[in-house]
Amino acid sequence: MEQRxxxxxxxxxxxxxxxxxxxxxxxxxxxxxLAPETAVRIRDVAEQLGYTPHPVARMxxxxxxxxxxxxTPQALSVIFSNPFFGAFSEGVAGAAExxxxxxxxxxxxxxxxxxxxxxxxxxxxxAIGLSDDHPEVEQIRRAGVPIVLVDSTALPEHGSVxxxxxxxxxxxxxxxxxxxxxxxxxxGVEPPAPSLAMDPDGVTSRRLRGYREAFAAVxxxxxxERVVVGPASIEGGIAAxxxxxxxxxxxxxVLVMSDAMAIGAMRALRDLRLTIPGDVSVVGxxxxxxxxxVDPPLTTVHQPIRRKGAEAVRLLLAVVQRRDQANPxxxxxxxxxxxxxxxxPVPGQRHEEVAGVHH
Amino acid sequence: MEQRxxxxxxxxxxxxxxxxxxxxxxxxxxxxxLAPETAVRIRDVAEQLGYTPHPVARMxxxxxxxxxxxxTPQALSVIFSNPFFGAFSEGVAGAAExxxxxxxxxxxxxxxxxxxxxxxxxxxxxAIGLSDDHPEVEQIRRAGVPIVLVDSTALPEHGSVxxxxxxxxxxxxxxxxxxxxxxxxxxGVEPPAPSLAMDPDGVTSRRLRGYREAFAAVxxxxxxERVVVGPASIEGGIAAxxxxxxxxxxxxxVLVMSDAMAIGAMRALRDLRLTIPGDVSVVGxxxxxxxxxVDPPLTTVHQPIRRKGAEAVRLLLAVVQRRDQANPxxxxxxxxxxxxxxxxPVPGQRHEEVAGVHH
DNA sequence: TATCTTCACTAAACCGGTTTGCTAAACCGG
DNA sequence: CCGGTTTAGCAAACCGGTTTAGTGAAGATA
Lengths: 359, 359
Known about the structure:
The structure is a homodimer.
Chain A: H1 10-17, H2 21-29, H3 36-49, H4 55-62, E1 67-71, H5 76-79, H6 83-98, E2 102-106, H7 113-118, E3 124-128, H8 136-142, E4 147-150, E5 159-163, H9 165-178, E6 184-189, H10 203-217, E7 227-230, H11 234-246, E8 253-256, H12 259-271, E9 281-286, E10 299-302, H13 305-322, E11 330-333, E12 336-338
Parallel strand pairs in A: 1-2, 1-3, 3-4, 4-5, 5-11, 6-7, 6-8, 8-9, 9-10
Antiparallel strand pairs in A: 10-12
Helix pairs in contact in A: 1-2, 1-3, 2-3, 6-13, 9-10, 11-12
Chain A binds a DNA duplex through residues 9-11, 19-26, 29, 33-35, 38, 53-54, 56-63.
C-alpha cells in the first residue's frame, strides 16, 4: 500500500457512479449517446475521484499517439549545442502544436538508435541528418511508421525536405573568389559516428561539392588536406581551426559549413591574434538568429531553418493523417548568401583587383 | 486492405514458429526460460517477419514508459527561440539519455497545458518556469506523476531546482552602480500568459528584487515605469527597448533578465545610433554560449544552465525509480557576474569617480 | 393490441503485449 | 522402478481503456 496516490481507473468511476465502464467511456468520448443528466453525473464522479483516462491505454485502443518523433543520429546533448537545431525544433514544434501533436525526441540510447526507435510511441517521424547508411530507416519502414527525411539522402518512397546545399556553398565560395581568395580552409560537419564513412550524398559532401565547383571554375583545386571536420558547435569550430593551424595550414579564408562552428573558428583566429576579415575571412552556413550579432557580423549562407522544420511536419502529417502514402513530396528550399562583416578582400591584395565586388 | 505494410503482432510470430505467445514473449524478455534452440528459432522467425514488440502495448503492461516529459508553460515554438532553452534541454537530454530515458516535450496544445499533459505518456515531468498559479501542477499530482519544478515557485512536496536569482541580479546591479550608473531601465521576461498577474515569487520578480535591493542600498529607487517586459527572445528585446525609448526613457544602463533579450536590446540601441558601452551599458542574464561572441561581448550573470537541466532529471529519476517520494530535494545553484565588454562607466563621468572598478 | 423504433445503457470482445499458475515430460537418486 | 525435482512450454488472466453487438423498456405506428 506504499503506492503513491493510487490512480483511479475507469472501473472505479463506473462502480462509484453505478454504471458500466462503457457508460463512463461514453461520458467522455460521445456524451450524446447518454442521457444528459447521466453524462453529467458520471463526469462529476470522475472529477471528484480525480479520474483521467490513462493515456497509454487510450493510445492502444485508438491506435494513434498524437505524437510525432524527431529522430537525430547523435545524442540530443550534442545536437542541442548547435543553435541551428533550436531553430529547426522551433519550426517543427510550431507546426506540430498547430495540429495538436506533441513532440518526442528520439536519439541513440546507449548508442543504439534502433532500440531508441523501437520503444518510441509516435505516429510518424521527422528524421534530420540521417545518412542512408543508417539501417534505422529500413527498420522504421518495417515498423510501418511514416517518415520524412530532412537533410538526408532522399529516398523516393519517403517525403523529404532539403535545401540547395550545392548552390549555397557555391555562392559562398564565389563570394570569396570575387574577393581574391584562392587559398581556403574548409571546415565541415563530421558524420554522426566517427567510424562511419562520409556519406557521398550527405549534406557535408554536397556543400563540399559546391565549394569545389566554384573554385574549380577559376582553376583552383581544394585538396583533401584543406578539409577538416568536427562536431557542429562553437567548441567544434575552435578545435577544427586550431587543429588545421597546428598542421601548418595558413589560408586567407575559411569556408565553414555551420554558423556555430564559424563562430568558434572566428574565436580561435582571434585568439591567434588574427583580425577578421583583415587577416582571414570567414563564411558560415545556416544564418542562425545570432549571426548578425556576433563580432564581426557573420557572412553566411542563409537557409530557411524554421520553415524546413515546419514543412517536414506538414509532409509527415499529410501521410499520417490521410494515410496517403502514394506520392510523397520532395521539397528543396532555396539558400542565399548574406554578406556581412566577416569577409573582405585578400590581405595585401591591390585594391583594383577586387574592385566591383567590394561592399 | 489498403493498410500500409501490416505490422506483425506477437500472435503472428507465435503461429509461424509453432509456439505460444508466451514463448515469443519469453524469447525476447527472458530467454533463459526457454530451450536455447527454441529461443533462437523464435527470434529468427520474428526477425524474418519484421516483428518488433508494439511499444504502446509494452508500456501498458510494464507500467512504465521510460520517457520523461519537459513541461513548458508557453508554446515550444516560442520557448525554443531562446538559446537558454537549448542549453537547458542539452542538460536534460544528457542526463535522460544516460539513464536510458527518452524525452517528450509538453506544451500547451490549443492553449491548454492540462489537456496536453493528460495525453502525455511519461514517467515523470520536469517543469520549467511554471508559476504556481498554474493549476496544472495540481492536476499532475493527482495523476500521480512525479514532478520536479525548475525556475518556478518551489513547493515543498516536489523536488525543485532553482538558482540564486536575487543574488545574481544584485551583483549585476552593483556592478552598474560601481560604474556610476543611477539611471537604469529594467527589461524583464513576461509571464507565460499576458493575462496572468506577475507571480510574486517567480523568476522575474526575484531578479527585479535583486536589482532593486542593490539600488536601494545607494538610495536609488527603480520605479515601475522603468520596468518593461517582453518575450525572452532577440525580437522581444528589440521591441522592449524600443517601446521604452518611445516612452521617453533615457537610461545610462539597461538591466536585462535574459541574454537573448539583451542582445536584442543592444541591436535596438545601436540602431538608435548609440554606442555600447560608450552611451549605454547593458547587462544580461544567463550567460548563454554566444554571450562572449556577440558585439560587444556581453556582460552578464552566469548561471549553470546545463547543470540545471541535468540536476532536475537526476532529482526526478530519484523519485521515479526508487518510488521514494519522502524527502524531495531542493537545489539552489549559484550565479556569478561575468564582466565583459558591454558595460562601462557612465558617459561624461569624471574618471576618478569610478576608479577601481574599471577593467 | 401487436409490431416497429428509438432510447439508454450494458456485456463482452478487443487493442497487443506480459505474467502467473499449471502441466507434462525428462531427469535423477535411491 | 518409483517418487521428487527440473525443465520447457502453454492457457488464461491482466494492463486500462474503446467499440461492437445487443437488450429491455418506453414510445410510436398500424
